[in-house]
Amino acid sequence: MKKVLLLGDSIRMGYDEYVRDLLKDKCEVYYDDKDNGRFAAYTLWQANQLFRKHGKFDVVHWNNGYWDMNIEAPMTKAMHPIDEYIHFLKRIIGEIRSNGAAIIFATTTPVLSSGYSLDNTGTAVHIQFNNDWVVHYNETAKRVAAEESITVNDLYALMLQEKNYYKCEDGLHLTEEGYRLCAEQAAKLILEKL
């Protein structure tokens, strides 16, 4: 049976089970259900661990963004300023290609206003967010994806279909309806790759 790996932050953790359920008769879907992929450098490390543990994959669907653009006090700059973000995106792309998998990159979902939210996966980190940052990081990631001929799953555009962007009360994470829509779009693109 074909194998799919889902990588990414807490947004991925919100839709991964739905993707697995949607694809259960078509492929095996893997993800780290206990650990958030956080920022791109951490996802690079996590991908390596999962490749070592599970071997080759046919498709890797992946996102990074919120943690990369986060300015966590007392730092005064993003965890990964744009040049570092690009560097780690390209490192992840290289590792996925070395594994032999097709790649789908998912954009970061929009936020309604600037703010802070506690990460909901037990990391005890507050994520600072601003939609201008989201747009900038998404534009950068889409440019890298275009240069590398990588399929983009535009979750940003998908969430714009609802006036509150399918955001839950914390302003960062999604409602169950939002996660289900993300899963449906991810599953559709994964099936196209398979």
Explain what the structure shows.
The protein is an alpha/beta fold and 194 residues long. The chain has one domain (2-193): SGNH hydrolase (Rossmann fold). Helix content is 46%, strand content 15%. A five-stranded parallel beta sheet has the order 2-1-3-4-7, sandwiched between helices. InterPro entries: Ester_Hydrolysis_Enzymes, SGNH_hydro, SGNH_hydro_sf. This is SGNH/GDSL hydrolase family protein. Pfam families: Lipase_GDSL_2 (PF13472).
Mean pLDDT: 96
Number of discrete domains = 1
Helical region count? 7
- Helix fraction bin: 40-55%
Task: Give the spatial strand order of the biggest sheet.
Answer: 2-1-3-4-7
- Biggest β-sheet description: 5 strands, parallel
Brief descriptors of the model:
194 residues, two-stranded antiparallel sheet, globular, Ester_Hydrolysis_Enzymes, SGNH/GDSL hydrolase family protein, hydrolase, SGNH_hydro, phosphatidylcholine lysophospholipase activity
